[in-house]
Amino acid sequence: xxxxxxxxxxxxxxxxxxxxxxxxxTKDVEEFIIGLATKSLDEVEAxxxxxxxxxxxxxxxxxLLKSAAVRTPRFQNISPGKQHWINAGSGVRGVPYQFVAGxxxxxxELYIDRGDKIENKAIFxxxxxxxxxxxxxxxxxLVWERLDDARASRIKRETIGNMFDQSQWPELIEFMxxxxxxxxxxxxxxxxxxxxxxxxxxxEEV
Length: 206
Known about the structure:
- The protein is an alpha+beta fold.
- It has a single domain (47-200), classed as Yope Regulator, Chain: A (2-Layer Sandwich).
- The chain has helices at 26-71, 117-128, 131-138, 169-200; strands at residues 4-11, 16-23, 85-88, 97-101, 105-112, 143-145, 153-160.
- A five-stranded antiparallel beta sheet has the order 3-4-5-7-6. Strands 1-2 form a two-stranded antiparallel ribbon.
């Protein structure tokens, strides 16, 4: 589209000069204003949607924590938050137990991230050598994710589900709290031995 210019002559006394201004066509102005309004509405809708997600997450975690408090005492003093996960310490720094949930999954996991990739993989590998006894104690197979390209590693038990569908909450909460209880019991002794090794190496406070 060509430019529309407005010329305004003015005089200095001896010379006549022109001021040249570009004029935005009316249609373009309308489209520009509509575009701004649409963008503003989209931003408001996105903000409201995110606010609603945070609200639902807090409600879901509040319900889950009520149930978890009976089965897993370590979560008794944890507050519901707006994130898609909540965690509690396992007794080994940087290796928490986590509840994680989204629109298509729900899981429990031991998340290994002490800030050092080599150390994380060493802890994971130490647990992996005990996979058979850990899974026998848990009662079902677990998913072992070393995540070689990432800093962290995890051991998890997962199911399909949507935390934003309130009708699914009872089933998801039952799965997650029962699985967390079993995960804690199956990893209690292996993590205790890992903590003792870390202390003997001076990597942890006694």
